[in-house]
Automatic annotation (TrEMBL):
<dbReference type="GO" id="GO:0001701">
    <property type="term" value="P:in utero embryonic development"/>
</dbReference>
<feature type="compositionally biased region" description="Polar residues">
    <location>
        <begin position="90"/>
        <end position="101"/>
    </location>
</feature>
<feature type="region of interest" description="Disordered">
    <location>
        <begin position="1"/>
        <end position="108"/>
    </location>
</feature>
<dbReference type="InterPro" id="IPR036180">
    <property type="entry name" value="Gelsolin-like_dom_sf"/>
</dbReference>
<keyword id="KW-0597">Phosphoprotein</keyword>
<keyword id="KW-0813">Transport</keyword>
<feature type="domain" description="Sec23/Sec24 trunk">
    <location>
        <begin position="501"/>
        <end position="745"/>
    </location>
</feature>
<dbReference type="Pfam" id="PF00626">
    <property type="entry name" value="Gelsolin"/>
</dbReference>
<feature type="domain" description="Sec23/Sec24 helical">
    <location>
        <begin position="846"/>
        <end position="945"/>
    </location>
</feature>
<keyword id="KW-0256">Endoplasmic reticulum</keyword>
<dbReference type="InterPro" id="IPR006895">
    <property type="entry name" value="Znf_Sec23_Sec24"/>
</dbReference>
<dbReference type="GO" id="GO:0030127">
    <property type="term" value="C:COPII vesicle coat"/>
</dbReference>
<feature type="compositionally biased region" description="Low complexity">
    <location>
        <begin position="200"/>
        <end position="213"/>
    </location>
</feature>
<dbReference type="InterPro" id="IPR029006">
    <property type="entry name" value="ADF-H/Gelsolin-like_dom_sf"/>
</dbReference>
<feature type="compositionally biased region" description="Polar residues">
    <location>
        <begin position="24"/>
        <end position="34"/>
    </location>
</feature>
<dbReference type="GO" id="GO:0000149">
    <property type="term" value="F:SNARE binding"/>
</dbReference>
<dbReference type="InterPro" id="IPR007123">
    <property type="entry name" value="Gelsolin-like_dom"/>
</dbReference>
Length: 1096
C-alpha cells in the first residue's frame, strides 16, 4: 500500500513477465538475470556507442562515490559535455568583441583600447575601465531608481562592447526583424553569436580551453560567457566587458561632468528627467517601427544610450535617461543561444550534475543513468556542501518533478521491470529502490545503499558476479541498474486492502440548471460525449479501454442514471436529499462503454431534451462530488469525476457558498481571504476523495463570480484540473472547450498514487508544491496524476554533503494505471556538491528557479499580504545576486551590476512574476481569475511557467513565407512592435494576433480576406481559411503553437490602437504595466540598488 513498505524476499528474477506492448521491451522481463547476454536490451545494452566517449560508461554509471567525476570537473571531461558550462565566455569574448569593433564605427572611441589585450585576458577581468568610471556608475545607477528620479547621463559614449542591439542596427534590416532576424549576422551578444556564424560547430563545443584557468572560486565571474554586454553607456571598454559580459554598469554619476572620465566619445549630457518610463518609441514619434529607421531602438528616444552609427554626436534634446533596453540581458537572446548551442545533440544523462538544455530548446534525451530533465529539473545541479553555504547564497534548492511526463515519440517510455512475487528490491533501512547508484560489494553478495549507506544482502535470486570495476556484469541488462527512470510492477503488498485494484472509472457529472441549458453547453457536451467515449485512455495497444463510465446530472438535486446494457432505455433516479448523499443504484451505474453503447447514446440524446425547459437556476456542488466519490467507493475502484458546472452553489446543501467577492480587499491585509476557501467543508471532502483515489476535474462556465478559490479546493487536493470558460457561448467557445475536454478525457492518468522523494544523507525534502494532499510530512498523496502535472519539492540540509559522493534524489511514484495495474515508477538523479559558491552559481537553472519562486509566492498569498510576498521575492533575489557579487565575481567597481551567467535573466523573469495577476492585479482582473491562475501555476512545469510569465512574441511577416521554421521571437515590449507587421503572442493560455495599422494591404487581404486594415474585425477568433501561402503559414503556426500547450489557446485578433489592445499590452511584460508593475529596465535598476544596499 505504501511506498515505504518493506519488500518481501525477492523471488527469482526473470519469471515470465507480462508483455507490455506499449513499451517495446517484451524481452526484458523474461530474461534470466544472471547469465543473460546483453542482447535483450537492445539499445540499452550499455551506453550507446555514439555517446560513449563522453563520459565513459563506467564513469557515468558507477556509484558516485567511487567513480563519478569530482564535482568541480564533472562537466568538463571533454568539450562536449562541458559546453555551455565553462569557459566559453573567455573563448568567445575575444573574437566577438573583435567583430563588434569592426561593425561599429560608431563606437570608435573604444578603438583606443587595444583589442589584443582584451582577447588575451581570459580569466581576470582586470583592466577595467578607468576606475573613476566605475565609481561614477554606481552613483548614477543608484540615482536611476524606480523611484523615478532619473540621473543625467552621458550621451552615447558607447557601450563597452557593442551590445547586440547595435549590431542589429548595423544589419540594416527593418527595425523589428533587425532585432533578431539579423542575429546570425552578428547582431548580438558577442560571443555565442559571433561564433555561431562560423559554421556547424557551435563555439561552445570547441572545448573550454580556458576552463582550467578557472579553478578558483574567485574566477567565477570570468567564466561566465559573455552575453549581454555592458548595459550602460559610459562603461569603459576594458576587460570587464569582454570577459564579464554580465556586468551592468551604470552610467556616469550626475556629479561628474559628462565625458570626464569616460573613455568613449563625449556626448552632450542629457538633461535630468523625472519620467520613469522615458523613451518609448511610441511616445517619441507616435509611430512604430518604420519610423525608427535602421536604429529602431536607440537613437533619439534613448538619448542616454550610446549612439550607434546613425545617431552620432549631436546633443540630444534632453530626453530622459534610461538604460538601453538592448544592452540588458535579453530572454530572447539566451533562448536563441541555447537552441543554437544545445539543440543539435541529444542530452545524455550519464554524467552527474549536468545542467540540461533550456526548456525552450528542442532536444532528445538519452537515459544513461539519470532521469531525463522531462521528469526532473533542478534549480541547481551543483548544491552547496553545507547549510551555511546554502543560507549564504539563498538559492532555493528545489526539484520540479513531473513523474508521468509524456515523452516525444523518439524517446522510449520507461521499461517495466517485473520481479515477480517478491516485488522490487529495496534497501532494508531507508526503503529506497534498487537503482544504478547502489554499490555492490563482497563479490556481489551484498549492496550498499547509496542513500543511507546501509549494507544489504542480495537475495540469492538476484545475485550476479561483478566485473573488475566492481560493476555487476548484468548491469546493462537491467533497467534498474543502468537507467535513470524505470517502472516496477507492484505486488499485492502495494495495493489497498492487499487486493489488486479494479480498473478505474470515469463519472461525468453535468450541471443542467438554467444557465447550462441556455448557453448550449449541455447539448454540446452530450453530443461530444457520444463520440469521445470511444477514446478513453487505454494502455499499450489494448483494444478497448478498461475504464468504466457513469453519468449524473444535477441542479439542486441529483439524477443518477442506470445505463446497464440489458436495458432498452436508461433509467433515472433522483436524489433530493443532498444533505446526506447516497448512491441510489450500484448495478448499472458504472458500465463498459461498448457493452452499454446503445443505452448511453440514448441517454445522451435525452438529457438536453429532458431539461430544455428548466427554470432551475440554483445548484449544489459539494454533494455532487460526494456522490461521485461514494459511487467509486461502492464500486471499490479509483477514478475521476468530470464536473461541468456553471454557478455559485447557493442552494441549501453542504458546501453552500455565498458571494464574498470584494475588490476593496485588494492591497489590504485581508486580501489573502480572496484566495482562501470560504468554508472548510471542501477540504474535508477532498480528504475523503483522496482516500478513495477519486480525482476531480472541474470545468467551469461562469457568467459571474463563482468563487473559484473555494470550488477548486477539491480538484487541487485530488490532483485534478480546473478549466474556466467565462461567459461561455457555444459559437465562440466550443472549439476551445471541446479541445480541452478531448485532451483531458483521453490523457493517461495514474490513480490512487503516493509519491515519496528520498535523498542521500545530508539533504532531505522539506516542502512540497502542487496539486496533491499530504497527511504526513513525506508522502505526497495524489488521487490522480496525469502527464501534465508537476510536484515541486524543496530540499534543505540536515548534514554536510560530500563533494565526492554528491547528492542523490530518488522519486518513487506508486500508482494504478488506466488498465488497473499497480506500478512503481522510479526516477533517479545524481547532483554534484560544491564547497565553492561559484560552482553553485555556474550550475543553476533560472527557469526552474522562477518556477519554484512563483509557486512559493503564490502559496504565500494565502497567508500574507501580497505586498509582503512581493517584497520577500525581491529580497531573496537581491540576496542571491549580492552573494554572487561578493563571493564569486572578480573585484570591480561597486557601481557595476554583475549577474551570474546562469542567472542573468533572473531579474527580468522575477519582475514578470511580481507583476503577474496574482501578485499585482490590474483593474480588469477578477478575483476568480486570480484564484484560477494561482491554482494553475501550482502544477505547472518549467516550460509552462517560462512562457506564462514571459510570453512569446513572434513577428509574422519578417521571415520568408517559405520558411518552415518558427520565426525568431522578439522581446515582449511595445518597442519591438512595428506598425507595418503582424505578431502572434502566446503565453500558454492566451493567444493574440496583433495587426499593425500600417500593414501592407496585400497582407491584410491574404490573411483576413478584406481589403483594408479598417475592415478587419477586432476580436476575431478565427482566421478565414484562404488558399495562399501567408494564410496557410499563419494558420499552421497557430496550430503548431496550440499543439505545444496543454490547454487550447483561443485566438484573439487585436488591431493596433483598438480598445482590445490594452488587453494585449498586458502581456508585453518588459514594459511598465497599468497596474503599477515596473518595466524591466526600472526593475533592474531597483534590483541593483537592493544589491548595493546588501553589499554596503
Ligand atoms: Zn538505504
Amino acid at each position: 500500500m505504501n511506498v515505504n513498505q518493506s519488500a518481501p524476499p525477492v523471488p527469482p528474477f526473470g519469471q515470465p513477465q507480462p508483455v507490455y506492448p506499449g513499451y517495446h521491451q517484451s524481452s526484458y522481463g523474461g530474461q534470466p538475470g544472471s547469465t543473460a547476454p546483453p542482447t535483450p536490451y537492445g539499445a540499452y545494452n550499455g551506453p550507446v556507442p555514439g555517446y560513449q566517449q563522453t563520459p565513459p560508461p563506467g564513469v557515468s554509471r558507477a556509484p558516485p562515490s567511487s567513480e563519478a567525476p569530482p564535482a568541480s570537473t564533472a562537466q568538463a571531461p571533454c568539450g562536449q559535455a562541458a559546453y555551455g558550462q565553462f569557459g566559453q565566455g573567455d573563448v568567445q569574448n575575444g573574437p566577438s568583441s573583435t567583430v563588434q569593433m569592426q561593425r561599429f564605427p560608431g563606437s570608435q572611441p573604444f578603438g583606443s583600447v587595444p583589442l589584443a589585450p582584451v582577447v588575451s585576458q581570459p580569466a581576470v577581468l582586470q583592466p577595467y575601465g578607468p576606475p573613476p568610471t566605475s565609481a561614477q556608475v554606481t552613483a548614477q545607477l543608484a540615482g536611476m531608481q524606480i523611484s523615478g528620479a532619473v540621473a543625467p547621463t552621458l550621451p552615447p559614449v558607447g557601450l563597452g562592447y557593442g551590445p547586440p542591439t547595435s549590431l542589429g542596427s548595423a544589419s540594416g534590416s527593418s527595425p523589428n526583424s533587425g532585432l533578431y532576424g539579423s542575429y546570425p549576422q552578428g547582431q548580438a551578444p558577442p560571443l555565442s553569436q559571433a561564433q555561431g556564424h562560423l559554421g556547424a560547430q557551435p563555439p561552445q563545443r570547441s572545448a573550454p580551453p580556458q576552463a582550467s584557468s578557472f579553478t578558483s572560486p574567485a574566477s567565477g565571474g570570468p567564466r561566465m560567457p559573455s552575453m549581454t554586454g555592458p548595459l550602460l553607456p559610459g562603461q569603459s571598454f576594458g576587460g570587464p566587458s569582454v570577459s564579464q559580459p554580465n556586468h551592468v554598469s551604470s552610467p556616469p554619476p550626475q556629479t561628474l561632468p559628462p565625458g570626464t572620465q569616460m573613455t568613449g566619445p563625449p556626448g552632450p549630457p542629457p538633461p535630468m528627467h523625472s519620467s520613469q518610463q522615458p523613451g518609448y518609441q511610441l511616445q517619441q514619434n507616435g509611430s512604430f517601427g518604420p519610423a525608427r529607421g535602421p536604429q529602431p531602438n536607440y537613437g533619439s528616444p534613448y538619448p542616454g544610450a550610446p549612439t550607434f552609427g546613425s545617431q552620432p554626436g549631436p546633443p540630444q534634446p534632453l530626453p530622459p535617461k534610461r538604460l538601453d533596453p538592448d544592452a540588458i540581458p535579453s530572454p530572447i537572446q539566451v533562448i536563441e543561444d541555447d537552441r543554437n548551442n544545445r539543440g543539435s545533440e541529444p542530452f545524455v544523462t550519464g554524467v552527474r550534475g549536468q545542467v540540461p538544455p533550456l526548456v525552450t530548446t528542442n532536444f532528445l534525451v538519452k537515459d544513461q543513468g539519470n532521469a531525463s530533465p522531462r521528469y526532473i529539473r533542478c534549480t541547481s545541479y551543483n548544491i552547496p556542501c553545507t547549510s551555511d553555504m546554502a543560507k549564504q547564497a539563498q538559492v532555493p534548492l528545489a526539484a520540479v518533478i513531473k513523474p508521468l511526463a509524456r515523452l516525444p515519440p523518439e524517446e522510449a517510455s520507461p521499461y517495466v521491470v517485473d520481479h515477480g512475487e517478491s516485488g522490487p528490491l529495496r534497501c532494508n533501512r531507508c526503503k529506497a529502490y534498487m537503482c544504478p547508484f547502489m554499490q555492490f560489494v563482497e563479490g556481489g553478495r551484498r549492496f550498499q545503499c547509496c542513500f543511507c549507506s546501509c549494507i544489504n544482502d542480495v537475495p540469492p535470486q538476484y545475485f550476479q558476479h561483478l566485473d573488475h570495476t566492481g560493476k555487476r556484469v548484468d548491469a546493462y541488462d537491467r533497467p534498474e541498474l543502468s537507467l535513470g527512470s524505470y517502472e516496477f510492477l507492484a505486488t499485492v503488498d502495494y495495493c489497498k486492502n492487499n487486493k489488486f485494484p479494479s480498473p478505474p472509472a470515469f463519472i461525468f457529472m453535468i450541471d443542467v440548471s438554467y444557465n447550462a441549458i441556455r448557453s448550449g453547453l449541455v447539448r454540446l457536451l452530450c453530443e461530444e460525449l457520444k463520440s469521445l467515449l470511444d477514446f478513453l485512455p487505454r494502455e499499450g495497444g489494448a483494444e478497448e479501454s478498461a475504464i468504466r463510465v457513469g453519468f449524473v446530472t444535477y441542479n439542486k438535486v441529483l439524477h443518477f442514471y442506470n445505463v446497464k446494457s440489458s436495458l432498452a432505455q436508461p433509467q433515472m433516479m433522483v436524489v433530493s436529499d443532498v444533505a446526506d448523499m447516497f448512491v441510489p443504484l450500484l448495478d448499472g451505474f458504472l458500465v463498459n462503454v461498448s457493452e452499454s453503447r446503445a443505452v448511453i447514446t440514448s441517454l445522451l440524446d435525452q438529457i438536453p431534451e429532458m431539461f430544455a425547459d428548466t427554470r432551475e437556476t440554483e445548484t449544489v456542488f459539494a454533494p455532487v462530488i460526494q456522490a461521485g466519490m461514494e459511487a467509486l467507493k461502492a464500486a471499490e475502484c479509483a477514478g475521476k469525476l468530470f464536473l461541468f458546472h456553471t454557478s455559485l452553489p447557493i442552494a441549501e446543501a453542504p458546501g453552500k457558498l455565498k458571494n464574498r467577492d470584494d475588490r476593496k480587499l485588494i492591497n489590504t491585509d485581508k486580501e489573502k481571504t480572496l484566495f482562501q476557501p470560504q468554508t472548510g467543508a471542501y477540504q474535508t471532502l477532498a480528504k475523503e476523495c483522496v482516500a478513495q483515489g477519486c480525482c476531480v476535474d472541474l470545468f467551469l462556465f461562469p457568467n459571474q463570480y463563482v468563487d473559484v478559490a473555494t470550488l477548486s479546493v477539491v480538484p487541487q487536493l485530488t490532483g485534478g484540473s480546473v478549466y474556466k470558460y467565462a461567459c461561455f457561448q457555444v459559437e465562440n467557445d466550443q472549439e476551445r472547450f471541446l479541445s480541452d475536454l478531448r485532451r483531458d478525457v483521453q490523457k493517461l492518468v495514474g490513480f490512487d498514487a503516493v509519491m515519496r522523494v528520498r535523498t542521500s544523507t545530508g539533504i532531505r525534502a522539506v516542502d512540497f508544491f502542487g496539486a496533491f494532499y499530504m497527511s504526513n510530512t513525506t508522502d505526497v498523496e495524489l488521487a490522480g496524476l496525469d502527464g501534465d502535472k508537476t510536484v515541486t519539492v524543496e530540499f534543505k540540509h540536515d548534514d554536510r554533503l560530500n563533494e565526492e559522493s554528491g547528492a542523490l534524489l530518488q522519486c518513487a511514484l506508486l500508482y494504478t494505471s488506466c488498465a488497473g495495474q499497480r506500478r512503481l515508477r522510479i526516477h533517479n538523479l545524481a547532483l554534484n556538491c560544491c564547497t565553492q559558491l561559484a560552482d553553485l552559481y555556474r550550475n543553476c537553472e533560472t527557469d526552474t528557479l522562477i518556477n519554484y519562486m512563483a509557486k512559493f509566492a503564490y502559496r504565500g498569498v494565502l497567508n500574507s499580504p501580497v505586498k509582503t510576498v512581493r517584497d520577500t521575492l525581491i529580497t531573496q533575489c537581491a540576496q542571491i545576486l549580492a552573494c554572487y557579487r561578493k563571493n564569486c565575481a572578480s573585484p570591480s567597481s561597486a557601481g557595476q551590476l554583475i549577474l551570474p551567467e546562469c542567472m542573468k535573466l533572473l531579474p527580468v523573469y522575477l519582475n514578470c512574476v511580481l507583476k503577474s495577476d496574482v501578485l499585482q492585479p490590474g483593474a480588469e482582473v477578477t478575483t476568480d481569475d486570480r484564484a484560477y491562475v494561482r491554482q494553475l501555476v501550482t502544477s505547472m512545469d518549467v516550460a509552462e511557467t517560462n512562457v506564462f510569465f514571459y510570453p512569446r512574441l513572434l513577428p509574422l511577416t519578417k521571415s520568408p513565407i517559405e520558411s518552415a521554421t518558427e520565426p525568431p521571437a522578439v522581446r515582449a515590449s511595445e518597442e519591438r512592435l512595428s506598425n507595418g507587421d503582424i505578431y502572434l503572442l502566446e503565453n500558454g493560455l492566451n493567444l493574440f494576433l496583433w495587426v499593425g495599422a500600417s500593414v501592407q494591404q496585400g497582407v491584410v487581404q491574404s490573411l483576413f480576406s478584406v481589403s483594408s486594415f479598417s475592415q478587419i474585425t477586432s476580436g476575431l477568433s478565427v482566421l478565414p481559411v484562404l488558399d495562399n501561402p501567408l494564410s496557410k503559414k499563419v494558420r499552421g503556426l497557430i496550430d503548431s503553437l496550440r499543439a505545444q500547450r496543454s490547454r487550447y489557446m483561443k485566438l484573439i485578433v487585436v488591431k493596433q490602437e483598438d480598445k482590445l489592445e490594452m488587453l494585449f499590452k498586458h502581456f508585453l511584460v518588459e514594459d511598465k504595466s497599468l497596474s503599477g508593475g515596473a518595466s524591466y529596465v526600472d526593475f533592474l535598476c531597483h534590483m541593483h540598488k537592493e544589491i548595493r544596499q546588501l553589499l554596503s
